[in-house]
Amino acid sequence: MYDIKKIVDVKLNVQLVYVALIHQYVYEGPCRFGPEECLTTEFDEMNQAEIFKMWSGGIGGALGNVPGVHMLEPMYVKMSDEFFISDEEEERIAANRAETDLYIFTGMRCEKIAKEFAMKYHVPVAGEGMFASTVLTSTLTARNYDKVYPIMDVPDTMRLLTALRAKKALASMRILAAVRNNSVDTLGGLDTVCNDAATKNLGVRYNYISVHEFLDMLHVNENDQNHTLPGRDVYNLTDEDMEEVNRIADYYIEHAKENDMERKYVENSVKASVLARKLMEHFQCNAFTAPCPDICASRRMNEEKFTFCFNHTLLNEMGIPSACEYDLVGLYSLAALAALTNKAPYMANTQPCVYHDGRVEGEYTGISYIPEMDTDPNIYYTGHATPNRKMYGYDSEPMEYALRPFTNSGFGATMRIDFNQYKGETITLVRFNPECTKIMVAKGTVVGGFGYGTTGCSEGIYFSVEDKLDYFKKQARFGLHMPTVFGDHVEDVKRLGEVLGLEVVVA
Question: Which are the contacts of 475, defined by CB distance < 8 A and separation ≥ 6?
Fold first, then answer.
């Protein structure tokens, strides 16, 4: 319904270039030998054409199956044994350089051509095959060229393309940031970042809107009556928008395994997600955040009878990164993980379980003692009332869920997932540091869940890590919220850190 250029829809355009070495004469020497009939120009032309066909079909087919990767038509370029290509051939390769995100060169003695092409046109390149990759990478890095990537085999190439796509997706990110007091930090997001650091290092941009303007626009068909924008024709919800609200509310109520919510309160929460998308379309944004504590203290949330929890859940399921508490670092991290894994991350408070005498610190948030703590000293938790059904993938079978209110009085829809059903599953957690110069990645194993049957911000996952103290000391330099998906994606995140030029911290 709303035209939003989602980061998960970003395409990485890849150009394969095969440099065919065609010898002009029959001769043998230190790098050429064989029967005379295999040394002719005619044999080279036949043989090279066949190798190109097999190579471009094989690797091209494999890489074309990577989510978000678009393979351009492979190019066949002839080079004589004088080791140069014509200007016309070079111009043909360069013709689509504005839309090409990576050139992959292969072929005997292709490295000279690839090196000169990269440095002339300032484009990212890789050499396919360990010989070409090693020579090209070392040659260009020795010349301080930072757009060259080593690749060992097809799986390694697939991981590189996934990381480059995530990098491109981050650079396309423009956040609709609803603010109350200021745009730098909030009571809930003190561990966020000076925004310019993310723009400089990741390419992220921002559009700011007053949260009071946002809340006024929830009122249907009153777009010239807002207190914060009197007389201005703005973007309040309309009857058409309410059709979308009703459709979404009906769907989630119908498919809930359990529902403790009055429909009007589900509708209130859905309205926020629809308005957020409407405003994102107008401001050409593709991510969202708002400051929970600051807005809560204004009493506007209590007046409007909703919380942003379900908004974050719905947007994340749609592939639109949305973060609690105006946590901008968490939002960049969430977006990176979504683009990297093609899964919808769950961002939550992430802390070690510190327990003694059968009690766990922080029980008021829903964290409590579980028997596994007696045998495993390395249990962590991650918890917020914003899980989603797509943590296994946007195209995966949706996880079962319940709908429950955030507040005791019944408003504020939240999705609750019983993470006890996923014991033994691997999860990956990610966060950039506040300066956006490092990225932390951790892997854990689910040992249980909490908060499924409760209200409030008390939903989440217990998981086991390799070393709880090591994890905590590393995380303390990054921040509280760590976006999470199912599956082992540590190597993917490490590769992303490499292509972004960031230090990778593994816990």
Answer: 350, 431, 440, 442, 482, 507
